[in-house]
Amino acid sequence: MPAAFESRFDIDFDGELPENVDEAALKRMETVAYILDESVRVPGIGFRIGIDPVLGALPVAGDLVSGAFSLYIVAESAYLGVSFTTLVEMLANITIDVVGGSIPYVGTVIDALWKANKRNVALTLEDLAEAVETDGAGGRTDDGVDIPIEPDD
């Protein structure tokens, strides 16, 4: 029986995840994405922004700091067994966010609109749900990331 998980974001996935998925890790990832991308509602228009555009007000350094926080979501996704191609997509989203956010004046708008972290959580959930669809048990049958661990002698 696959695990059910309800995302706080409006993400289109079937809601079934592998049984062995760490739901606490998913909640942590969503919390980081929420803080960086949607923690503050702009009064009057209802649009949400996070601290990512605020950090982006510090030229280059702010975007590097938010990019470092964004890498947490990628690391957790790799731990959960997300496919290599999805991890590359996630890194591309962060790259666009950091590089685009570093552009003077326009960068803050890019940071507010791109929402790389929310996109990356969606990619993770979609990839994990796809694993359930492909083999039913939730185990990876495609190009999951394997990290070999050699025993100490």
Question: Any key phrases for this structure?
Answer:
two-stranded antiparallel sheet, 4 strands, 153 residues, mainly alpha
Summed up:
With 153 residues, this protein is mainly α.
Describe, in plain words, how this protein is organized in 3D.
The chain has 153 residues and is mostly helical. Helices cover 57% and strands 5% of the residues. It has helices spanning 23-37, 51-55, 61-80, 84-101, 106-114, 116-135, and strands at 3-4, 16-17, 40-41, 48-49. The strands form two sheets. The chain has a two-stranded antiparallel sheet with strand order 1-2. A hairpin with a 6-residue loop joins β3 and β4.
Topology, element by element:
Elements: E1 3-4, E2 16-17, H1 23-37, E3 40-41, E4 48-49, H2 51-55, H3 61-80, H4 84-101, H5 106-114, H6 116-135
**pLDDT below 50 for ≥5 consecutive residues: which ranges?**
137-142
Between the first and last Cα atoms, what is the distance in angstroms? 39 Å
The best one-word shape is globular
Order of strands in the sheet with most strands? 1-2
Summed over residues and divided by their number, the pLDDT gives a mean of 82
Strand content: 5-15%
Give the strand tally. 4
Residues in helices, as a percent range:
55-70%
- Largest beta-sheet details: 2 strands, antiparallel
Order of helices and strands: EEHEEHHHHH
Rg over C-alpha atoms, rounded to the nearest angstrom: 17 Å
Q: Count of DSSP helices?
A: 6
Structural class: mainly alpha
